[in-house]
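Handoff note, outgoing to incoming analyst
You'll be picking up this chain. Sequence as last confirmed:
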Amino acid sequence: MAKGLTKTALVRQMAEKLELTNKQTAGFLDLLAETAVKETKKNGEFTIPGIGKLVKAERKARLGRNPQTGETIKIKAKTVVKFRVAKVAKDTIAPPKK
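Most recent structure output, in case you need it:
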């Protein structure tokens, strides 16, 4: 599988396109990530228009199975973070078949 764009490569690409320094662009990306985490933790969701949404979700306690032994185990309730891809991004990347 092909390796994705690294943070350094993304920073360089954005810096060139926006005519900013690499340091300014890296600062922007760090601020975006920091803001996304804070807002998701505080409000339960954070939207990046055109890309998607981070959503905090609660999972209920449930019974699971240990795959090695087959033994039934209890899995505690927990909070998880999910990413929902925006429809625009999804349709652009993988257009629906007609």
